[in-house]
Amino acid sequence: MKEFYSVLVYLTLFILPNTRRTSGSNVEETHERYKIDGKITIQGFKPADWVSQTRILVDGGNYVGFLKTDGSFTVNDVPAGSYVVEVLSPNNLFEAVRVDISGRAKGKIRARKVNFLQNSAVVTVPYPLKFKAKEPAPFFERREQWKVTDMLFNPMVLMMVLPLLLLLVLPKLINSQDPETQKEMQSSMNMFNQSKDLPDISEWFANNFSSGGKKKNRQ
């Protein structure tokens, strides 16, 4: 029992105060909040309600920003960390940007392009953020147009064209080769022609069985 009480006293005197200090320090570090500034520009036609319909999503929508009349925005109360900033618009498409907020450097912000395949590759972009519309949002799927390659890569066309190409190209290849190779090719072709002179097995069976059946009928 004395050992048990001594352990409790040790915990209350040394370990619990340290845990409280560390937890308090974490709260102070995470208490700092920063803001992300930027502006959106759209060239060409702008709907009348494009400002009210556009949203700025940070970290998948955990932090949301709204546009002002001039297209600028500010996302407040963002803690230090790395976030993907996206523009959600029903009329236009925008490229996302990754923003790194450093808590050690008192909120220093670095903006770079989003690269999900190579996250370590850093291509910086200017800050405050400047989003430009890439293209209008596609509401309808584009109909496929006819192409010449569709006909050329058709299996039926390939089956018809490839043998013709072989017939045209092989004689030229044979003529351009050495005389010895020509003799070998001719001998192989002769062997193939000789095999044509041999009787067909199906014809041989048909003739023999048909003749045997006729003899039996005559008897």
Automatic annotation (TrEMBL):
This protein's GO CC annotations = EMC complex
Keyword match Signal: yes
Protein topology in the membrane: Single-pass membrane protein
Compartments where found: Membrane
Q: Which UniProt keywords apply?
A: Membrane, Signal, Transmembrane, Transmembrane helix
- InterPro entries the UniProt entry points to: Beta_sandwich_EMC7 (IPR019008), Carb-bd-like_fold (IPR013784), EMC7 (IPR039163)
Signal peptide start and end residues: 1-24
Its transmembrane ranges are 151-170
Question: Where does the record place the ER membrane protein complex subunit 7 beta-sandwich domain?
Answer: 46-159
Which molecular function terms from Gene Ontology are attached?
carbohydrate binding
Location (main, coarse): membrane
Q: Which Pfam families match?
A: EMC7_beta-sandw
Which family does the similarity line name? Answer: Belongs to the EMC7 family.
Q: What is this protein called?
A: ER membrane protein complex subunit 7
Q: Which organism is it from?
A: Desmophyllum pertusum
